[in-house]
Amino acid sequence: MLVYDVTKEKSFGNVLRWMEDLKNQADPNLVIMLVGNKIDICKDNPNLRQVSRDEGMRLASENKLLFEETSAIASTNVISAFERLLEG
Predict the structure, then answer these.
(1) Quick check: pTM over 0.90?
(2) DSSP code at position 37
(3) What is the rounded average pLDDT for all residues in the chain?
(4) Strand partners of residue 2
(5) Is CATH 1.20.58.100 correct for 2-87?
(6) Distance between the two ends of the chain, CA-based, in angstroms?
(7) CB count, 10 Å around CB of 58?
C-alpha cells in the first residue's frame, strides 16, 4: 500500500517516487494499492482536501494500481482496502 494524505498535496506528490522504490526493490509481481487517507477530515470541511478523488484514481489507473480512499480514524474503507489488496 502506498498511502498519501488527501489534505496534503505534498504527500501525493511523493507517490511516484515511492512507487518506483517499491518496483525497484520488491517482487515484480507485487500488487500495489494507492490509498488516499484522512477523508474524515474532508467530510466536515471539504476545503481542507488538496487531492481530489479523481486525481488519485487517475494516478492509480495510469500506473495500474488498485485505488481506495480511507479514514483510519473513522475506519472507513480500511478493511475493504486490505481485502481488495489481498485479492489483487
Answers:
(1) yes
(2) E
(3) 94
(4) 34
(5) no
(6) 12
(7) 12
| Distance set, CA 40 to CA 25, 28, 31, 36, 61 (Å) | 33, 34, 26, 11, 24
Residue whose cell numbers read 515511492: 18
The domain segmentation of the chain, as residue ranges, is 2-87
Q: Which three cell numbers stand for residue 38?
A: 484522512
**Per-residue cell: 87:** 485479492
Q: Are strands 33-37 and 2-5 parallel, antiparallel or unpaired?
A: parallel
- pLDDT average, residue stretch 41-69: 95
- Report how far residue 38's alpha carbon sits from residue 36's, in angstroms, rounded to the nearest whole number: 7
Q: What is d(CA 58, CA 67) in angstroms, rounded to the nearest whole number?
A: 9
5-37 confidence digits (pLDDT tens): 999 999 999 999 999 999 899 888 889 999 999
